[in-house]
Amino acid sequence: MNPALENFLRLYSLKGVGPKFLKRFYRTVGTFEGDLEDLVDLFAEREGLPPAKVERLKAALEESEREFERLVRFLEREKVKVIPFFEADFPSDLRKVGEEVAALFAVGRFDYSTGFSIVGTRKASREGRLKASAFAAELARAGFMVVSGGAEGVDLAAHEGALAAGGRTAVVLGEGLARYLERNRPFAERVLESGGFLVSQFPPFFAPAKWSFPKRNALIAVLGLFGLLVVEAPERSGALITADYALRLRRPLFAYVGCTYQPNYAGSVELVSEKGAKLVVDPRRLVKVLTSGRREGSEPPGERTPAVSPPKGETEGPSSAGKKVLDLLRERPRTFDELLALTGAAPEELLTLLTELEVEGAVVCEGGFYRFAG
């Protein structure tokens, strides 16, 4: 560990010290290198701190030695990469959105050059989980790294979809790494084996709080260099906070809207109707949009661009599968599970087809039932 990082972490180990103080210290002193006691004296002199306050700060540093050693043991044991705000590889986009982050703590290969983020509600429907998994799998097969927040629902479905497709995924935490690894070691190992990483903007032993999860949404947006997809989001969902960050960063924003009359999609509908998000239905079409619009030199190594079927909207009338669904719905309204059993289609294919028919106005989804709208 280099001296500057050691001094930084010693200060960060102090109770009550956070990003604002650390950045103020750096602006005042200009470095974290050198003897820490001398740096504290220089900080105190330039800030005009009273002697009593300086002595309390030095005493606190001595008293926090045990906490610092505990931190170092964890960092070394788990091979954690610490990326403080003053180093070149700290994501500059976090500064652009005005987030006060002192450092990132990452396990695994911290490379988000092919990152694409997927977010949504924790209380996801079966449809939402299936769709998140399908989008993630297709993105992973195309060489993208799927970024999400590790929570139940849409997040976890996205991670699992990417892993099932043999791709990389990144988990952005709303708590410290040590806390997360205590409960989720097997899943974390699968993420690392995929070549992905886990990252937190909070110190390793930080316990999760209600405010910390919305706080980490900025990082999810930042790591999604190629864009953000909101799969299922009700009003006031945390996913909408992530979408706002993506818009501020001018990242491509996409939304999947399932049954438009279900409350769980109200936020997704708002993103399309009021925020300019692009409506996406088919994972292959999303990949086609992303791969055709990539910046020169930004192709992921070994990317395999999948063959893309012609958009259904360009054919004459509905497909044979679409006709079968419409015939079934002409008889009476049906649930998704009924249609799944009657058509024999794969779940993700049926979801895509139903959403396309709903967008075209041929089908309406109300109260969990699809009905013919013609």
Name a few traits of the molecule:
3-stranded antiparallel beta sheet; elongated; Rossmann fold; alpha/beta; single chain; 9-stranded mixed beta sheet; 12% strand; 12 strands; 374 residues; Arc Repressor Mutant, subunit A
In CATH, the topology of the largest domain is named Rossmann fold
Order of helices and strands: HHHHHEHEEHEHEHEHEHEHEHHEHHEE
The whole-angstrom Rg is: 24 Å
Tell me about the biggest sheet? Answer: 9 strands, mixed
Instruction: Look at the structure and give the mean pLDDT.
Output: 88
Widest sheet: strand ordering: 1-2-6-5-4-3-7-8-9
What is the count of β-strands? Answer: 12
User: How many structural domains in the coordinates?
Assistant: 3
The parts where pLDDT drops under 50 for at least 5 residues are 295-316
What does the model show?
This protein has 374 residues and is α/β, with parallel strands linked by helices. It folds into three domains: 3-77, no CATH class; 106-292, Rossmann fold, CATH 3.40.50; 312-372, Winged helix-like DNA-binding domain superfamily/Winged helix DNA-binding domain (Arc Repressor Mutant, subunit A, Orthogonal Bundle). 49% of the residues lie in helices and 12% in strands. It has 16 helices and twelve strands. The strands form two sheets. A nine-stranded mixed β-sheet has the order 1-2-6-5-4-3-7-8-9, with helices on both faces. Strands 10-12-11 form a three-stranded antiparallel β-sheet. It starts with a helix and ends with a strand.
